[in-house]
Amino acid sequence: MTDRGREPDSTTEDGPAASTRLRLDIAYDGTDFAGWAFQPGQRTVAGEIRRALECLFATPDRLTVAGRTDAGVHARGQVAHVDVPSETWQRVGPRVLWRLRGILPPDVRVTGAREVSTAFDARFSALSRRYVYRVSDAEWGTDPLRRIDTAAWPRAIDLDAMNAAAAVLLGEHDFAAFCKRREGATTIRALRRVDWARDPDGVAEATVVADAFCHSMVRSLVGAMLAVGEGKRDTAWLAGLLTRDSRSGEVTVAPARGLTLVEVEYPDDPTQWSERQALTRRRRGSLAAGF
């Protein structure tokens, strides 16, 4: 082992050694991160994980994530993949979680690391992403022990009204009114589930599931539904937003702290990973082209 716990680079005289693809399951408190993605001069989740992997593998390949979360957003079920030198993996693998635990800061953890085939792509092999948004409308505010992952709302909200309105969002729509548009990217998404319920402590929780989400989409959906829940807007207004072709200034983006990525779903059968990846890439390309 070399300086700072780094394993030697696995190369041969003939070139780079064989690599092994790893699926990483990741959890983090997003409070002090500028989001997932690498940003110069900013502390990011990807940056911390990349540095930890470099300590063990020296030359890990590109880190590909299922969903790039925004600044302040949390995760319990984030997934990424990375290719590492096979020889090093054989040495490090049995204790990799323990070793990463000692390298990573306390607000991010790799909770699982296992070998998968190169057919697995954390982003494009995914079937869906599931987020949960927590908001307390209690008069006294938020439980101090859950203040990191729960947003406080200053007014009472009606979950029945919110659930009734949420039904219009289900299915495939252009969610441009709820997204920060990125050049060359589509804002068409298939929303599979959106509903509200109160947990045993009375905190309102929204569960939102889609094939994928565009930038700020979940928090914008939550912000719009909260406007309905407090009586400022109605179902017709929410439905009308789906006819917009650009970001709506009428939609308030809910605070980041209430949002957690809890699960990314993949086909159970590994032989379907490549098929799902090809289908996702094809579909994204078609939608971006406007077909």
Outline the structure in words.
The protein is globular, with a radius of gyration of 21 Å. α1 (45-57) packs across α3. It has 291 residues and is α+β, with helices and mostly antiparallel strands. It has helices at residues 45-57, 86-92, 96-103, 159-166, 217-229, 235-241, 273-288; strands at residues 11-12, 15-16, 19-28, 64-65, 74-85, 108-116, 128-136, 151-152, 171-174, 188-198, 204-210, 259-265. Helix content is 25%, strand content 26%. The strands form 2 sheets. Strands 3, 4, 5, 6, 7, 8, 9, 10, 11 and 12 form a 10-stranded mixed sheet that branches. A two-stranded antiparallel ribbon has the order 1-2. It contains 7 helices and 12 strands. β4 (64-65) and β5 form a beta hairpin. The longest helix has 16 residues, at 273-288. The protein has 2 domains: 3-124, Pseudouridine synthase I, catalytic domain, N-terminal subdomain (Alpha-Beta Plaits), CATH 3.30.70.580; 128-264, Alpha-Beta Plaits (2-Layer Sandwich). The model is unreliable at 1-13 and 287-291 (pLDDT under 50).
Quickly list its features.
about 290 residues, alpha+beta, Alpha-Beta Plaits, 2 domains, ten-stranded mixed beta sheet, two-stranded antiparallel sheet, 12 strands, about 25% helix, globular, disordered N terminus, disordered C terminus
Q: What kind of sheet is the major sheet?
A: 10 strands, mixed
Fraction of residues in helix: 10-25%
What is the number of independent domains?
A: 2
Q: What is the CATH class of the largest domain? A: Alpha Beta
Shape: globular
Number of helices: 7
Instruction: Tally the beta strands.
Output: 12
CATH superfamily of the largest domain: Pseudouridine synthase I, catalytic domain, C-terminal subdomain
- How much β-strand is present in the residues? 25-35%
CATH architecture of the largest domain: 2-Layer Sandwich
CATH topology of the largest domain: Alpha-Beta Plaits
Give the radius of gyration: 21 Å
**Nearest-integer average pLDDT:** 91
Task: Please state the structural category.
Answer: alpha+beta
> What is the string of SSEs from the N terminus onward?
EEEHEEHHEEEHEEEHHEH
* Unreliable residue runs: 1-13, 287-291
How many angstroms does the end-to-end distance come to? 53 Å
